[in-house]
């Protein structure tokens, strides 16, 4: 069995192989399953006529892969053929390119930016309503011959209630 020095060092580092008291690796570990098989070692094990331990291990690995592929195939019955998958991929890539174009041309904006603009607009509206109270309260008080402070307090109570109700609204940016 041929292997690279790097594989042996890695196996020593993770504890799959152990050096003896003399610093050498036990010769009986040469054919054991201390290293994980890859494509080449699996193919070699399947083609070698005399290897039984490695062949059994390789056959077990191949069977595990077949079972995993079967699970994937059963879990998604709408697997596509290669031409269909390529066409689907190209369609989605075209949609992505169109999305990028619309974003660069300014016709499409980020949701966070839109939310920020809406927040700023509502803040300006709220501030305008609060300023409106101090402007209108004296006129209403004069028209009804009432105390300005009482009218301002009454208006402030109703305007703040209205602003609280408007503040509870959540804008829905989803389509539909």
List keywords for this structure.
176 residues, 6 helices
Q: Could you explain how this protein is built, in words?
A:
- With 176 residues, the chain is mainly alpha-helical.
- The protein folds into 3 domains: 71 residues, no CATH class; 30 residues; 57 residues.
- 68% of the residues lie in helices and 0% in strands.
- The protein contains 6 helices and no strands.
- Helix 5 runs antiparallel to helix 6.
- The longest helix is centred in the last third of the chain and has 33 residues.
- It is elongated, with a radius of gyration of 37 Å.
- The model has no long low-confidence stretch (mean pLDDT 78).
Fold topology:
Elements: H1 5-14, H2 39-47, H3 53-75, H4 82-105, H5 111-143, H6 148-167
Question: Would you summarize the structure shown here?
Answer:
The protein has helices at 5-14, 39-47, 53-75, 82-105, 111-143, 148-167. The chain has 176 residues and is an all-alpha fold.
DSSP E strands, number: 0
- Helix proportion range: 55-70%
Counted up, domains total 3
Low-confidence stretches: none
Hey, roughly how much beta strand do the residues contain? under 5%
Computed structural class: mainly alpha
Q: What is the CA-based Rg, rounded?
A: 37 Å
Give the helix tally: 6
Q: For the residues shown, what is the average pLDDT?
A: 78
**Overall geometric form:** elongated
The main sheet comes to: none
Series of secondary-structure elements, N-terminal to C-terminal: HHHHHH
User: Distance between termini?
Assistant: 65 Å
